[in-house]
TrEMBL record:
MF terms (GO), sorted A to Z: adenosylmethionine-8-amino-7-oxononanoate transaminase activity; pyridoxal phosphate binding
Alphabetical list of Gene3D superfamilies matching this protein: Aspartate Aminotransferase, domain 1, Type I PLP-dependent aspartate aminotransferase-like (Major domain)
Classification lineage: Bacteria, Pseudomonadati, Pseudomonadota, Alphaproteobacteria, Hyphomicrobiales
Alphabetized PROSITE patterns for the sequence: AA_TRANSFER_CLASS_3
Family, per entry: Belongs to the class-III pyridoxal-phosphate-dependent aminotransferase family.
Protein name as catalogued: Aspartate aminotransferase family protein
Organism encoding this protein: Aureimonas flava
Domain of life of the source: Bacteria
Keyword terms, alphabetized: Aminotransferase, Pyridoxal phosphate, Transferase
A single BP term in Gene Ontology: biotin biosynthetic process
Cofactor(s) required, per the database record: pyridoxal 5'-phosphate
Amino acid sequence: MNQHARPNRPALDSYWMPFTANRQFKRAPRLLAGASGMHYTDMDGRPVLDGTAGLWCVNAGHGRREIASAVERQLLQLDYAPSFQMGHPIAFEFAERLAAIAPGPEGQRLDRIFFTGSGSESVDTALKIALAYQRAIGQGTRTRLIGRERGYHGVGFGGISVGGLVNNRRAFPTLPGTDHLRHTHDIARNAFTREGLPAHGAELADDLERLVALHGADTIAAVIVEPVAGSTGVLLPPEGYLQRLREAATRHGILLIFDEVITGFGRLGSPFAADHFGVVPDLVTTAKGLTNGVIPMGAVFAGRHVHDALMQGPEGAIELFHGYTYSGHPAACAAGLATLDIYEREGLLTRAAALAGHWAGAMHDLRAAPNVVDIRTIGLVAGVELAPREGAPGARAYEVFVECLARGLLIRVTGDIVALSPPLVVEAGQIDEMAATLGEVIRATP
Ligand code: PLP
């Protein structure tokens, strides 16, 4: 859209909005009309600094012409092709490019790639691959899936079953045969950790041992965690936690899945969290930054041992009865390839590492503001946790969100936690602006 064209205000009745207080929103709508670089434009043409990369996805910033042109070219060349029993070149090309930067060290990269349409689909795909893998290696009794409290793995039935956010679960039945590790959030011991990872809590990874003792390892197929839990309010893994979880999973023949829908594609300062923490999972789920958020797409990265175990049976047999109409959609692949070009040319998959110190400094300066009970940063992510108002959980942070927007800054809140995750093209001055606005608003909010 031409940024200068002002769209008309739309009628609001028919669109049932996702994860939104619809009635409240429609009384006082917050509409974004355009975007370029680090900024959105609202309906009145005012700039809004994007503190959240949209929904953790617009890593290369908004309005990248190169991506738009690549999508247009692809749509005119080949708009859609069936994804089952047929192929088209750009899906293979994109998979090869992704394989070259796939999570894991050289020689151990998870370079077999299954395309999906979203993060939720990536999660359900990874869970199904894990089950199919166990069956294929003669471990068909392993059907249990382990997640973690406070985890967010999207909204499919698989994802909510291993997820650990009560509001996403309470209205829906979840899969039988799931269980959860305890979460790692521990303000009492780890508040305001500024350097490195929280010192306390690695032993929580031993929960996997507890669940093995309870259920039997021979019933457990996989354990899935977000290396850094995002949607629940930015929870960092305690020092040594992920390594310990990896060791326990290996010991018991359980596949380890990292859900990197947020952490993938440079958010922490490394291409993937698996690289950042030096822990190699068996499967990695991604979406969001895969296409800079501009065309819906997800990808599951699988280790060769997982992939190869399934490539057996009669030559003409379909090895995995799973896939989507839009797996490897040509337009999404075009967007993804153009996105990767930008990431590589502009060094965006590691840029967060260079800015992390400045980012942490700016965010931790908010410590002195009233009602701030913890600040957590890693790469270009921050969680600023506020004390809930007596009897009104979430109200304080919601007011902070609304007021930041009024002052031209988009943040995200979950409960009473403010989450920030700007596009990876953010400049130091814009980081300072975010911290200054957020600080002023927190100070002005009772
Ligand atoms: N997994 C994680 C870790 C996420 O943060 C999200 C979305 O925020 C999802 C899965 C779901 O992705 P989507 O909304 O694309 O289905």
